[in-house]
Amino acid sequence: MDPVSATGIGLSVVSLALQVFSGWYQIFTEVADLPANYQHLRTRLRIEQSRHLNWGEQIGLLEDSLQLPSQVLRLHRNLVLDVLLEVSQAFASALRIAGKYEDLGVPDLQISKGSSPKQTRFLERAKSLWRASGQAASQLQWAMIKHEDFEALIVRLVGYNDAMESILDRSALEDLRIMQERSNLLLLQLTEEISHLHTLTEALDIKPPPATAVTNVTFQSLTFGGPASSAVQVSSLAAFKIQNISAPANFNGSDLYIQHGLSDIADPDHDKDRTMTVLDGKQVFVEWRTLVNANISIDDKHILETRLAKLALLLSREDKPVEFRSPRSAGYCKREIEDGIQYGLVYEVPSLGNAWVGIDTLRDAFAYSLRPTLTTRIRLANSMVESLLYLHAVNWLHKGFRSDNIIFASPVAGSIGSHEVLASPLISGFDFSRPDTSDEITVKSTSQARHDYYKHPQLLHHSTARSQKSHDIYALGIVLIELALWSPIETIMATILGKPLTTSRIPHIRERLLIAPYGDFADALAAVAAQAGEVYASVARRCIEGGPSLGIDTNANQADPVVAATLQRVFYDDVYLQLKSIRV
């Protein structure tokens, strides 16, 4: 194709795209006097605008100069033009008013940032085009829209975006899925109010048409698990977040308190964290926690038991996000011990078709299993990172992330070495977990010395320090190092120190991992790089360093939505995606 023709293709398409964004999307997303029962449509419109921008970036539509349009844009020029025209006509058909849409304006519009610098520049160009045109009259009012056609408009836009995604190859579609997942998780992170979360779930529940009239193509994005599946995933997370930050009416948790039916919970060895037992004839395990302060007030005791009941309720839900990889809870219990009371979360043991199933931990595997292949270890690392990403996405802190809380169900206890068993980890050990909000009290449980190996120095130095997401991420970094070197952290530290790890040295674990020689290596992270590669080591280092390495100030208030959004973005891009990029 000659350059002149190519330029013509690029300019004709981008001109229409700028018109769509400088007019239709912005006018409709800023419509005035939108009733509350239609707010979910505005939310979905913004999501579809984000998708539109994302596929536009993938096909080269947002380039500052389209003198040499992309191959996709050259091959599918007519399709792209048709879709943009259909989008424009779909908006126009939803208006009651006669005349041209140019009679409307949004003079004070503040255009949102795109999910990439290229998208932000494109939106600014659209904004400048609108201002330069002098077309700025009155803002679109709800009365000017055909109310009955508004949802149909959104459905059509969903279909058009699905159609455009279908022209992308697998690589571009995966990039698009990542862009949309990032955008959706950011939206979820910044949505805090219950009413807004309900609006978000309603918005994400809008289904596309079976096919679009303009293209009549198979929606490839659905086949490959593209952006449409991301919307389903975030809808599930949003529903869980609602349950997380609100309790059912008149909730007191009594239905989840297990008083009878558990066998042998009066175990004399009350130092054990986990007890295998039977509940009403079914195999379960109990994870025990003992309060640091056994003499807490009646009010705080009530708060604690309500929190345990609420956590049991959340983890008992059949529709909880599968990415959490948490075992299903059956309730909570408590037992008297010499020093006070122990509380236990009761979990169902996954059925493997056997009469009895063993529960092993990653820490167990270090002791009596040969080092698995690097492929197996990286898959396991990906599973752990994904679980923490989605747990934090709903603002829930784990507070007990360590290798003895990465558990595996196996036909026989001790058979954890098989790749099949290691492929299905469960994340357990929720230590009085709580929502990450400033008004939630922190309840501390007693712990063995080895539990402190995974605690951030801030939690060890300051007895009143609140747990934060970065503390969970730090613990994840410790487990990533263990996984790469296939050794528990105390063994790794013994190599660094030249002697066994003592209690007095626990607060210095972070510092020693980052700067102290490890055998023949400059530091432990260099040894990790030798075992698992530079990318894996950089991910582990970022988790251990925290603070600026995670995009936030060391003392930032991580309960602040803006700080939390920044932390999530960096964790998603520089931990989650980096780890997923590793190919063995």
From TrEMBL:
<dbReference type="GO" id="GO:0004672">
    <property type="term" value="F:protein kinase activity"/>
</dbReference>
<feature type="domain" description="Protein kinase">
    <location>
        <begin position="240"/>
        <end position="563"/>
    </location>
</feature>
<dbReference type="InterPro" id="IPR000719">
    <property type="entry name" value="Prot_kinase_dom"/>
</dbReference>
<protein>
    <recommendedName>
        <fullName>Protein kinase domain-containing protein</fullName>
    </recommendedName>
</protein>
<dbReference type="InterPro" id="IPR029498">
    <property type="entry name" value="HeLo_dom"/>
</dbReference>
<dbReference type="InterPro" id="IPR011009">
    <property type="entry name" value="Kinase-like_dom_sf"/>
</dbReference>
<dbReference type="InterPro" id="IPR038305">
    <property type="entry name" value="HeLo_sf"/>
</dbReference>
<dbReference type="Pfam" id="PF14479">
    <property type="entry name" value="HeLo"/>
</dbReference>
<dbReference type="GO" id="GO:0005524">
    <property type="term" value="F:ATP binding"/>
</dbReference>
